Every structure is written in C-alpha cells, then in structure tokens.
Amino acid sequence: MKIAVLVKQVPDTETKIAPKADKSGIEEAGVKFIMNPYDENAVEEAIKLGGETTVIGLGPDRVVESLRTALAMGIAKAVHIDTAGKSLDAFSSATVLAAAIKEGGYDLVICGKQAIDNDNSQTVQMVAELIGAAQVMNVEKLEIAGDKAKITRRTSAGKEIYESSFPLVIGADKALNTPRYASLPGIMKAKTKPVDKKTAEALLGGAAALVTFSNYQLPPERAAGKKIDGEPAVQAAQLVKLLREEAKVI
Amino acid sequence: MGDILVFAEHDGGKVKKSAFELLSKANELVASAGGSVMAVAIGSGLDSVVAELAAHGAKKVILAENANLATYNTMAFTKALAAIVDEFKPSIVLASASEAGKDFIPRLAARLKAGLASDATDLRIDGGKLVATKPVYSGKASVEVSFNSAIQMATTRPNSFPIAEPKAGAQAETIKKSVEVGDLVCALVALEKADSSGKADLTEAEIIVSGGRAMGNADNFKILNELADVIGATVGASRAAVDSGFAPHSMQVGQTGKVVNPKLYIACGISGAIQHLAGMRTSKVIVAINKDPEAPIFTKADYGIVGDLFTLVPLIKEEMKKALA
Lengths: 250, 325
Known about the structure:
heterodimer, A: 250 residues, alpha/beta, 7 helices, B: alpha/beta, 5-stranded parallel sheet, 8 helices
C-alpha cells in the first residue's frame, strides 16, 4: 500500500501572536515553528502501518525541517512543495497537494485533522474531494484488512465505526496514537533519505485562491473582573447571586 | 445581492438552535443588502422542521429527502447539498461549524469551487459581497475573510449570533426534493452511543465546567459532573488534566483540543496556560476557582475565587440547586 502523509508547520502553541503593522499577516520573526501537532499523529500512524510511505510538506524552506523529523521518525521518503513566497488559501493548497498525490498514486492519505494556525480544517476535506477519495475526519483508530479500511472516530453521538474502500483520506485526532520520538540512528539515517523538490506554482495549474485573509487583529483584552472574598460558603452564595443578577447567565 | 441558503441542522426532526442563529443573522444581512433567505434540511421524514424554520425567517424551506440520508454521511450530504445549491443558486451558503458542518462543508466548497470561511464569529455584507470575521491561532488573533468566488460560504461558530423572536404562524414555501445519493463507498457500520446522553457537545455547549491538573485524578471529576448536572453544563478539561490521564482528549478545551464559546465557563483548578486561554477566551462570562492567587486565569476571569475547588464546587452546586429550585 502506498501511503502519503501531509504535514504543515505552525507556530508553537506557546507563541504569542502579533499581527504585522499592515495587518496582512502575523510577525514570523522570532517565532518557533513546529510540525502541526495533529500531523505528528498522522506521521506515526503511517509508520505503524508500514508499506511505502512518503511525507509531503507544502510551505517555505523551513518545512524541510519537519520533513526531516518525519524521516527520522521512520517515513521512507519526502516531497517538499515550495510555496516560494506565494500565498495560498485552503483551496489552492488542496489543489497543489491533490496534484502531488495524483502524481504519486497513493491509496491512503493521512493528515492531521486541522492545522492549528488558521484553524480552517478545510484542506484535508478539499484534498479528498479533489482526488475523488472518501474521507473520515477526527479519526481515533484505523485498521486495514485487504482492500478495506475500518475507521473509528468519536463524535458527540458516540463512537462511530466506518468501513471504506480506497483511495481514502484520514484526518488524525490526538487519540489515534502516541507519536514516537526520533531515535539517534533515525536522525542519522534521515540525512541520507531523499527529499524531492516540487513547486506550488507548477502544481497549481492556474487555480486561483477563492478567499483572501486580511486585517489580522488581536482580540480585545479581557479585563480582570471581580475577586469574591470571604468564607467558602459566602463565596459560593455570592458567586451564584452575581451569575444570576449581574451576569444573568444562570 | 443574491439569496442566502442556510443549511439547517436537526436532530431527528427537531431543529437545532444553530439553525435559528443562522436564520436570524441571514435575515439581518438581507434586510440591508437585499435577497431572500432559504433554508434546507437534509434527512428523511422532515415535515416537522418546516414550521419552526418559517417562524425563524426562512421564506423558502427545501427538504432534501432520501432514506439514505437519515444518518449523517459525508459524501451523501455533500452530494445532496451540492444538488440543492445547483438548483436554487444562492450566492451565499451558511452552515453551523458543528461536527457535521466542519466535516462536509469544506468538501462541498471544493466541489462548488466556492470560497469558504470556517468557524466565523461575525458576518457582514460589504459592496454586495460577504465578509466573515474568524478567529485564527485558536483565537489569539482574528482575521477578515473576503471572497473571490461567485458562491460564498461560511460555517459559523455556535452561540455567535442572537436569535430573533420567532413569528408564530409565519409561512414558507415548502419544496420537497428527492435526492439520489447512490452507493456509499464509506459508510457507518456501527455506533456505540455515548453515555453522556442529553449533554451538549463542548463546542455547542452554553455552559461549561472545566477541570485542570488540580483535579488530582479522574474520579474527582465526579464533583464537576454533579455541578454540571444541576446547571445543565458540559464538562471539559485542560490539557494538563488530559495529559495527566484524568480525562479523555475529547474533553480537552484549548488550542490542541476544542475551541469553545459558551455563555458561562467555570474553570476549576485551571492555571490558564496560553494554549488553554486561546480555546475559551470568547466565553461571555468566565469564572475562575483556583488556590493560587497568582494564576494567570484570574486576569481573564469576570469572577475569581481564590480557594479550594474541592470545598467550593460542592457549595456552589448546593447554592445553584437552591437558586434554580
């Protein structure tokens, strides 16, 4: 089975976000970029399943770092699709990734369920649509038997189990697995593994962005509110009174 | 401006609150920019949804029915809604950023070559086109999304818009469409029902009681569950609590968990790490209970109590019981 894993780099979760002066994006200087956390679960799952594994990363040069991490964890080869300064929306990203996936002829595409930068959770589903594959998001368990996949995911309704044929696109949730750390021999080996280069421009095939992001802003600061003092019983009674009479939320 | 189509979700024929929010907002948009508001429900046996959707401002109610659509399925719902959009040609399609909305609306957008703003918290019309505001970096910043496509789509975060007073007896033109969905290449074969019956999903909950590392163990979440039962809340957890094994990841609120938007968020023993604050900062009212007076959560809380949650939470439960009796 040919498996592709899609990875993206995002600012570390501890990053304080600051919009650029012209509000066209965020300041990237000094920001530590990491592999999108859900993508780590996608990489782990591909390694566990084995077979012919390829990690595909779309983004600027720094993405190669995360591709090397995936190779060090155990993925066989990598493809870096260079955005080369071009800004892509979810649809154009999906168009580029779908083109690369079609070229590679993969049966299974594993992704993180969403990237924690734009929080769109669009690209994965769009890739599935553009390559004509089934999709299952928020996946907690993936089992493969012959030409069928059994996929478990959790929704508010409960635990759902799907059966699907291939090609299939999976959006990994945290509960899918525990990503391994790269071992020292793994890191050494990763240095000799191939990283193919492609450009977004070439794979885009003239498709245009459907949305534009602008006017990046920080949310209004929340002012600190009231401290409720006194004995616990007094505090509890006072809180309930305030929630009912002042905040009117109960 | 053209028409707005609202994808109205329902639970076995009972319309979800998110649909009323969307209809209220859609009516506000057409009041200034022109156009008409339509609603579409997908499923089987949908007659019960018509009156409520009409009362909340749908001028046209489309029922896309097929026995295959009784259970949610990504590909089937994509196909059904694509057929409705093709036929009724709205210029704007709105849906809730619910579990289903997040799942299939992006796929539909790609099929229709329509721009999509996910998880929007505000919508407006500017020069005849939709502009959506959405949080990015889990709410550490926000951005405006404008559209370059003919069809403009948005999913909106639950609890973002007030619901206008319904007009009892309002009429809507009702159109039934039988939608062919064909064979499903990916189908639900089993469902183990969750035991939290009747509890709203965290992302849609109006009240959330959340526990942090200070809960100490999984059993102690019982006191949060008891308070939640009294006030109709859903229970959440911080990443620290999830990483410590006190709660499953499905309960995690924060940047790598669920982003929530309740009217009341009660944080118990949560220090307020930046990644947790990102996930709950849009809550209308935040209550923090923590032993540590220096905990960062207090800088965001509307009401803060420095004290022991194991003493306070049961007392608050009793006070709530009295107040709500």
